[in-house]
Amino acid sequence: MDCRGLRRAKDFARVPRSTSRRRAGLGAAVFALAGVVLAAVTLAGCGLGNGPGALFVDPGRYDAYHCNDLAARWKYLLDREKTLRNLMDKASGGSGGSVIGSLAYGVDYDSVLTEKNLVQRQAAEKKCELAPSFQSDQTIR
Length: 141
Hints:
This protein is mostly helical. The protein folds into 2 domains: 1-47; 53-132. The chain is built from 3 helices and no strands. Helix 2 runs antiparallel to helix 3.
């Protein structure tokens, strides 16, 4: 073997190392950019007047609802909120479960809370009662 052959082998072996370093740097940059975008979207959602779930809920959704429809939707949202809260509490029992629970159910939970605010606002505008007040049709004698 001559010396030129050894140099070529060494130079060839060095190329993948520098390429892998560039790729690692690029991956870290993409990861950092994704984190910045996620933080921006999260903060933008919190800045909205209806709460963080407002990105997923149409604010005019309940404009055409009547009082009975709003009361039925209110009852559904209360049940859904209770179910999601129970699931998040159940997930937080294990190690790292609170993070997994908030990732799995957090978006739905925020959407339900936002919908509850919208239903309350619409019911107040239409002067509707969301919780039925039970009254007897008989007088006390």
